[in-house]
Amino acid sequence: SDGSVRLHQMTSEYPLMQWNDSTKGQPIIALQWALTRSAVFLALDASSNIYIWDLLENDLFPVAKQAIPSEKVVTMTLLGEPEKANGLLGIVLAKESGQIDIQYVKKKWALP
């Protein structure tokens, strides 16, 4: 609810990593690991901003942020085929109006 992201290992109650104020205090409403690249995860905040973390590129801050200004996004999920090395990673955005939007992530964040 405060925009913090914590990476946990199942065997410990303490996080391995913690990113405070990563969304400038906006609540995170969806977060998912990339299906095609294990070091990448994406988060959606309550202000319809998408953040991309690539832990191999930078483990301190998101490597990209994309605002979706047209309409409030209420949730997201990711598309991809982990068994294929084609580097396609899609983001499915569900908007408040019921409209669905699909966007693709740059290959550098999608390739295995």
Distance between the termini: 31 Å
Mean pLDDT: 90
* Percent in helix: under 10%
Poorly predicted regions are none
Descriptive notes:
With 112 residues, this protein is mainly β. The protein has one domain (5-109). It is 0% helix and 46% strand. The N and C termini lie far apart (31 Å). The mean pLDDT is 90. GO terms for molecular function: dynein heavy chain binding; dynein light chain binding.
Topology record:
Elements: E1 5-8, E2 15-19, E3 28-33, E4 40-45, E5 49-54, E6 64-67, E7 73-80, E8 89-95, E9 100-104
Antiparallel strand pairs: 1-2, 3-4, 4-5, 5-6, 7-8, 8-9
Brief summary of the model shown:
This is WDR60 protein. This protein is an all-beta fold and 112 residues long.
List keywords for this structure.
single chain, 112 residues, four-stranded antiparallel β-sheet, three-stranded antiparallel β-sheet, 46% strand, globular
